[in-house]
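Example 3.2
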Amino acid sequence: MKFLFEEKQKCNLKAVWILIIAVSCSMFTVSIIEINSAIHAAKSTSINYFGLIFPLFIGAGLPLFLYSLTMITTVTDSHIVIKYFPVGKAVMKIEDIQSIEMRTYEALNEFGGWGIKYGFKKKCYTMSGNEGVEIKFKDGRCILIGSHKNNELYNAITKNEAAPRALSSI
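Structure, written as tokens:
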């Protein structure tokens, strides 16, 4: 298997991180208030442990989960592989491609944001930005892959030996 292209993307949207930090701080604050209340009410036999632990779990777990999100797009001599760690993976055969185009997209308007998204007639894999490669397959599927290197991604797919001859002439 020959690797022709690889791109690794992480979430780098400042507005998202500001929101995540704000939610985490508020969850920690709620947790501290709950713990303080539980200590002062220690005479009571019914302490709500879920109310103590859940805000801590969300406050620490959400930022760690979102920080770990990584999208790796790889083009080999026969496949396009998108790994969206730790969520999942998609593998597509290059020989099944009907058409491909580079395009600008609006993640919020078309898909409701970034990530693995489902539109009306297509699926989107993106981390940030507004440029990518849209691929239509022979079976009717349509997938948009967001990329900061969309020219390189496009060339790796269209110049691939496994690509249908019609794509090589684009």
